[in-house]
Design goal:
single chain; alpha/beta; 8-stranded mixed sheet; 6-stranded mixed sheet; 9 helices
Length: 389
C-alpha cells in the first residue's frame, strides 16, 4: 500500500468505488481506497438492486436523473453490462401514504407523481384495478392508490462495482482491501493523513465513504453526523406459480415491505430496526414478522419456501438526504455518506459530482446546473460539529 496519495477514500462500497473511477477519469489518478474487508462486502452487496425515481427525495431527483443517463451509456463507457432491466416500480399506499395533496403529509404518492411529471419523468398514478393487473394476487385491503414508473427497474450492483474498480485500477487507482482506517491526522484546519491498520498515508484529501461506519469516521474529523443504521432483512423464495412471470418491484410505503422476482422465485424485503452490528446477520425470528405481512398482502406467498436470506444496514439521516461535500471547518475532508439504502441508484451521479468538486472545486458545469450539492452538506443539521477532532 502506498504511503502518499492525493486522495484517500475510506470505504469500498459502490459510492467509494464510483468516486475512485470518476476521479481517475478526470485525471486525478493518485488515489488510494482503503476497505476493511472486500470491495462491495457491506451494504452495497446486500441491496435489493433497484433504481427508481419514486424513492429519492425531491433534492435527490437530479442525481437520479444523472445516474439513469450514466447507466444508459455504461456499456459504451466501461464495456460492461450494468444489468439494467426496466421491470418497473410500483409503490402502494393507503390513507397515510396517499392523502389529498391539499391537506395531506408524509409520502404522498399524488404529490410525488405531480413532481415527476413536472420534470418530464414517465410516471403513472394508478387505481386498484391497474395495481392488480401489474402485480397480480395482491390483497389490496387498505391500499388506495399506486404510483408506477415503467422505466424504473433492477441493476446489477456487483457488475457496476467491478467495472468501476477495473477501470479505476487501469488508470492507476490503488485499492487496499483488508485495510481498516483507524483515524485522521489533522494539522490546524486541514486533514493531512489517514492512519490505517497497514500504516500511515499522507494525503491532503480524505473522503468519508464508510457506509455504516460513516458516523465514526466523521467523529475523527470533529463532526457529529446524524446517521442511524437501520437493519433490513431480505429473503428469497422458491418458485411461486402466481408470480411465474415478471412483475414490477412492488413496494408498500407505510410498512416498507417489498417484493420482486429473483430467479425462479421472489425476493422479499422488510425491516427498519436500529442496529450497531458491523456484520449484520439474519435474525430468523424476524422471518415470522415478514411472513405474516407477506401472506396478508400477497396470499400466494403462503406457498413459498424460503431458500435464502441476508441482512444489511441502511445508514439514514433525519431528512433522508445524503451528506455530501467538503466540511466547512476542516479543509480536505469530504463526506459521501448517509445514502439511506439508496446508494446503489445514486452512485454513478454522486461519483461524478463529488469528483468534479474535488478536482475543480465546484460543480457549476452546464450539465449539472440543477444539482446543488450544497444542500447536502452536514451543516444543515443542528449540532453537526462535535467540537473535538
Amino acid at each position: 500500500m502506498k504511503n502518499i496519495a492525493e486522495v484517500v477514500i475510506i470505504g469500498g462500497g459502490i459510492q467509494g468505488i464510483s468516486l475512485a473511477y470518476h476521479l481517475a477519469r478526470r485525471g486525478l489518478t493518485d488515489v488510494c481506497l482503503v476497505e476493511m474487508k472486500d470491495l462491495g462486502s457491506g451494504s452495497s452487496g446486500r441491496s435489493a438492486a433497484i433504481i427508481g425515481h419514486a424513492f429519492p427525495t425531491e433534492n435527490c431527483l437530479p442525481l437520479i436523473e444523472l445516474s439513469f443517463a450514466a447507466l444508459m451509456r455504461f456499456q459504451d463507457e466501461l464495456d460492461a453490462d450494468p444489468g439494467y432491466e426496466p421491470i418497473g416500480c410500483l409503490l402502494l399506499a393507503g390513507a397515510q401514504g396517499a392523502p389529498d395533496p391539499s391537506t395531506g403529509s408524509g409520502h404522498c404518492l399524488r404529490r410525488r407523481h405531480a413532481l415527476l411529471q413536472s420534470r418530464g419523468i414517465d410516471s403513472h398514478l394508478v387505481d386498484r384495478e391497474t395495481i392488480s393487473r401489474l402485480t397480480p394476487g395482491l390483497n389490496l385491503e387498505g391500499i388506495e392508490v399506486g404510483l408506477y414508473g415503467p422505466r424504473d427497474g433492477m441493476v446489477d450492483p456487483h457488475s457496476i462495482m467491478m467495472a468501476y474498480a477495473h477501470h479505476a485500477r487501469r488508470l492507476g487507482v490503488e485499492f487496499a482491501e483488508g485495510v481498516k482506517a483507524t483515524g485522521l491526522q489533522i494539522e490546524g484546519d486541514r486533514v493531512v493523513g489517514v492512519h490505517t491498520t497497514a500504516g500511515f498515508i499522507a494525503t491532503p484529501r480524505v473522503v468519508n465513504a464508510a457506509g455504516f461506519r460513516a458516523r465514526e469516521v466523521g467523529a475523527w474529523a470533529g463532526m457529529d453526523l446524524p446517521i442511524t443504521n437501520l437493519k433490513r432483512h431480505i429473503f428469497v423464495t422458491g418458485p411461486i406459480p402466481t408470480y411465474s412471470r415478471s412483475i414490477p418491484f412492488t413496494y408498500e410505503v407505510e410498512v416498507a415491505w417489498y417484493m420482486r422476482r429473483e430467479g425462479p422465485g421472489l425476493l422479499i424485503g422488510m425491516g427498519a430496526v436500529e442496529s450497531d452490528e458491523e456484520d449484520p446477520q439474519v435474525d430468523w425470528s424476524f422471518l415470522d414478522v415478514v411472513a405474516e405481512h407477506s401472506m396478508h398482502r400477497a396470499p400466494a406467498l403462503a406457498e413459498a419456501e424460503i431458500k435464502n436470506g441476508w441482512a444489511g444496514l441502511r445508514p439514514i439521516t433525519p431528512d433522508d438526504d445524503p451528506i455530501l461535500g467538503e466540511a466547512s471547518h476542516l479543509r480536505g475532508f469530504f463526506n459521501d455518506c448517509g445514502w439511506g439504502g439508496h446508494g446503489i441508484m445514486h452512485a454513478p451521479a454522486a461519483g461524478m459530482v463529488l469528483a468534479e468538486l474535488i478536482v475543480d472545486g465546484t460543480t457549476d458545469r452546464g450539465n449539472l446546473t440543477d444539482v446543488d450539492i450544497s444542500r447536502f452538506r452536514a451543516e444543515r443539521f443542528e449540532g453537526w460539529l462535535s467540537g473535538c477532532c
